[in-house]
Description:
Blueprint: E1 2-11, E2 14-24, E3 29-34, H1 40-48, E4 54-58, E5 63-66, H2 78-84, H3 93-103, H4 119-132, E6 137-141, H5 149-161, E7 168-172, H6 176-182, E8 185-190, E9 195-201, H7 214-229
Parallel strand pairs: 3-7, 3-8, 5-6, 6-7
Antiparallel strand pairs: 1-2, 1-4, 8-9
Helix pairs in contact: 2-4, 3-4
Amino acid sequence: MxxxxxxxxxxxxxxxxxxxxxxxEEHTTLCIMGRSGCGKSTLLNCVAGLVPYAGExxxxxxxxxxxxxxRLIPSMSVLENVEFVLRGEKGDVRRRAEKAxxxxxxxxxxxxxxxxxxxxEASRAALARALAYGAQTLLLDEPFRALDIGIxxxxxxxxxxxxxxxxxxxxxxxxxxxxLMCADRVIVLGGSPCNIILDLSLPSPRCGRRVDDAKINAAxxxxxxxxxxx
Length: 230
């Protein structure tokens, strides 16, 4: 079990989280939704240890982070970008990097530089970099927000088909369809301080879901209602 207990975070005079609680089963893909600025990215940053907080965060282990921007190093090839996070590690680093690129569907771009690939390809390369790191928890902060819907669906399909690579996944998104197709569970955050206003488990398995399924339609209505209310 992954646990966030009594989480408190504040920025100057704004309290973002006050005694926030969240339990997540291992190997779960949890989509986190809510209005802009409610604390979604802050929650991921706390799990990653990037911002100061009070409280307990347990069980998430090492984290791989995929941001809204790919953050690839322009002077390195796609392969070199992935190998960069493996520097100093033992074993066949090249094989691990190429395996991750293959899982993300961009192995054929390994010798290209970031300025020579599309936004969707860069997002996949950034995902491969996080996968190669071998983290126990994958943090995704709207990494596909600016992508064409067709490209986005292709990336999501490959991620779901690979079982989100066996990691714990915290996935921030504003896209309801994205959440319904990716997640085992969806939470909607709202309020000030931030709290959970909807906690919804979705039918399994993810790869068998259809957008017109009655259970998915019912889940969509609940998520939209919660997003509208908060």
